[in-house]
Amino acid sequence: MSEVQTMTPIKSDGSASKAWLRALELTASIPRNRDRIMPVVIEELATRFGDASALLSDRERFTYRELAERSNQYARWALGQGLVKGDVVGLLMTNRPEYFAVWLGITSVGGVVALLNTNLVGPSLSHCINIVSPRHLIVASEFTDLLTTALPGLTVLPTTWIHGSDDVRFRRIDPEIQRQAGETLDRSERPSLTIEDRALYIFTSGTTGLPKAANVSHARILQWTHWFAGMMGAQADDRMYNCLPMYHSIGGVLVPGASLVGGGSVVIREKFSASQFWSDVTRWDCTMFQYIGEFCRYLLHAVPSSHDVDHRIRLACGNGLAPDVWDQFKERFGIRRILEFYASTEGGVSLFNVEGKRGAIGRIPPYLAHRFSPALVRFDVDKGEPVRNAEGFCVPCAANETGEVLGKIVNDPSNVGSRFEGYTDRQASEKKILHNVFETGDVWIRTGDLMRKDEKGYFYFVDRIGDTFRWKGENVATSEVSEAICAFPGVKHANVYGVAIPATEGRACMAALVPAGELDLSALFKHMAARLPSYARPVFLRLQDEIEVTGTFKYSKTELVNQGYDPGATPDRIYFNDPGSGGWVRVDEALHDRIRAGQIRL
């Protein structure tokens, strides 16, 4: 493309209805074909599309036929190792086409593949390995040192296979795979599998403690991939750009699977790069891309280039696009359509904003309300649980009232999308479930997320329950404070959290900021006073050169909360909103001690 594409508005009637209809049609047959799992679908696609491109990268490329053959090689390797249905194989590998082939092949013969986070190290990595008890580990050669840090913490040492280079401590798997036949396995080779069998373990981010391993069945893999193929309108001439981590449900399952179901191809990049994103998209002639978390904000802060609009993107799909970024992102990069959604690996609730409503995460069409029934209930921040009335039932929220979103668990095999399959930790699974919510005997899943719903039925994300805090008797939603601060010129990122102050109730608001240059703190003070109620204005500011994010582009807060406003814990500048002077004061050790001693009234 040499010209900026004309941005066409999304019609909220026809196009939205068609998206829902496509998704419903593609997923309707899943419960009726119990032995048709994702590897079987890939075999069907290989027969249909053959030598068409499937998975592409600078490292390797697979056609549909080659993908099916490579997955069959991994299936035969698994059988050769004596794996039986339910045995676990851990996978520690960077983004690449081979990644998808590994889990596809092993799950085709009953193995369960644990997708290990490549950012974890030491005890956190050994924890994830221990809780799924794998018989084997497949580790890319670039992660052998990472694995070594986890070895002392392993309760049982799995048989470890290295992919990509020799290491005298472990076996090498890629030559073993090359020796396997790539032809389709016949029925006598495969164990009997159905969509009800477990296929993957995918780990939570660990934002509220150590990561948990979520159970993912073959049914949910099919539901994710086919539903999104319908929602995106995936076609054979589409090419999806994917730089999200493949150990995550979106980057490793949903994105490649949905694109392949539509007959298109996927470009896989090892890691996200804001500076190279649009040149990559243009070079590979992509038509869609997937985003998550603060991904789009990083793109917006990148240096402008000719590639910003010199592309063929028709759809950006993802979750976490902040309202303050939405319009700027569409305008600068010529994005014709944004498909924002809300979902979790654990399942229970999913929402889709197919109309392109700015800032909304979804809306349930009235004609589907009987099938998809998320509810918003009033939430007690102090107790950390939904409010119950005199009869012991939860209290529904009014329009635009913030509450926790719940998903009803229905014992209906035909409704795969309503499933909650829980974690390997049964106690963790039970903590996510609420009983007797609106009537005796009903069962709902807690999402742990606060939302509001407007008069037209659009849902808006407000905050994670663990992030929202109380100060001066009021609830402070960190996402709303962050949005207000980021509207100030010169603020690139704002990570908001609560910090404890002795002899005070609740937690005070603190914001870690990444400025584009030198900030005018006086002007920022006036900006926040005009946009935020007094209880939600930051009491402390921390200025950073860069902000730490998780592998899924969410702001990391744990270490910031632990360090608080102690200037001795960080070289970053920390400022205090001094009620006495009515402005920002640099925090030194003496001021820190006075605040902690309760000598300053807040």
Overall description:
With 602 residues, the protein is α/β, with parallel strands linked by helices. It has three domains: 350 residues, 3-Layer(aba) Sandwich (Rossmann fold); 91 residues, Luciferase, domain 3 (Roll), CATH 2.30.38.10; 128 residues, GMP Synthetase, Chain A, domain 3. Helices cover 28% and strands 23% of the residues. The chain is built from 17 helices and 30 strands. The strands form six sheets. The protein has an eight-stranded mixed beta sheet. It has a seven-stranded mixed beta sheet with strand order 7-6-5-3-4-8-9. The longest helix is centred in the first third of the chain and has 17 residues.
State mean pLDDT (0 to 100 scale): 92
What structural category do the secondary elements indicate? alpha/beta
CATH architecture of the largest domain: 3-Layer(aba) Sandwich
Q: Tell me the number of structural domains.
A: 3
